[in-house]
């Protein structure tokens, strides 16, 4: 049941995009880093969601903006890609995908995180955690899936 003129990238591209529907939420809850004031004290695990919780406590408006651009837009982009891949909306969904791709700031958020890790916090200690690698994979995979989908459309 596909729409006439549906964009059908290779099966691995579609499968990876479906996996992102599960992997993104896992990455948001996974520890990105462990941070602490001094090496003698325990390190606190920080994830995307705990970061948003902290931001929510201090600035609700900013927390909503970050949640929109770092969580909602990337997930909507992934859902939109899924609908395009399986012919539910066809090529007419590509303009929406381009807009969502520009709004999905997960890649910018990730770069900011790496800069924070590289600079350190001065007094304390920061260690990377497995969630940072998973989140990095999700962002890069999403960019690749978008590229391959666009490429499939152009090659039709």
Provide a brief overview of the structure.
This protein is mainly α.
Keywords:
156 residues; mainly alpha; elongated
Distance between the termini: 19 Å
Spans with pLDDT under 50 lasting ≥5 residues? none
From the alpha-carbon coordinates, what is the Rg to the nearest angstrom? Answer: 18 Å
Care to count the β-strands?
A: 3
**Number of helical elements:** 6
Helix-strand pattern: HEEHHHHEH
Q: Biggest sheet, open or closed, and with what strands and sense?
A: 3 strands, antiparallel
The residue fraction in helices comes out at 55-70%
Lateral arrangement of strands in the main beta sheet:
2-1-3
Strand content: 5-15%
Global geometry:
elongated
Secondary structure category: mainly alpha
Mean of residue pLDDT values: 81
Description:
The chain has 156 residues and is mainly alpha-helical. It has a domain of 104 residues. 67% of the residues lie in helices and 7% in strands. It is built from 6 helices and 3 strands. It has a 3-stranded antiparallel sheet. A hairpin with a 7-residue loop joins strand 1 and strand 2. Helix 1 packs antiparallel against helix 3, helix 1 packs antiparallel against helix 6 and helix 2 packs antiparallel against helix 3. It starts with 10 loop residues before the first helix and ends with a helix. 22% of the residues are buried.
Helices and strands, with pairings:
Layout: H1 11-29, E1 33-36, E2 44-46, H2 48-58, H3 60-85, H4 94-103, H5 106-119, E3 125-128, H6 130-154
Antiparallel strand pairs: 1-2, 1-3
């Amino acid at each position: 049941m596909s729409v006439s003129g549906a964009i059908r990238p290779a099966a691995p591209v579609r499968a990876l995009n479906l996996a992102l529907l599960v992997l993104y939420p896992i990455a948001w809850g996974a520890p990105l880093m462990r941070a602490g004031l001094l090496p003698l004290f325990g390190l606190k695990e920080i994830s995307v969601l705990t970061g948003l919780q902290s931001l929510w406590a201090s600035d609700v408006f900013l927390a909503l903006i970050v949640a929109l651009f770092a969580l909602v837009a990337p997930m909507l982009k992934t859902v939109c890609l899924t609908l395009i891949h399986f012919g539910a909306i066809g090529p007419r969904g590509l303009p929406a995908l381009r807009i969502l791709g520009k709004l999905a700031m997960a890649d910018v958020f990730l770069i900011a995180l790496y800069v924070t890790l590289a600079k350190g916090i001065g007094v304390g200690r920061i260690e990377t955690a497995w969630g940072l690698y998973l989140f990095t994979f999700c962002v890069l995979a999403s960019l690749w899936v978008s590229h391959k989908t666009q490429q499939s459309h152009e090659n039709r």
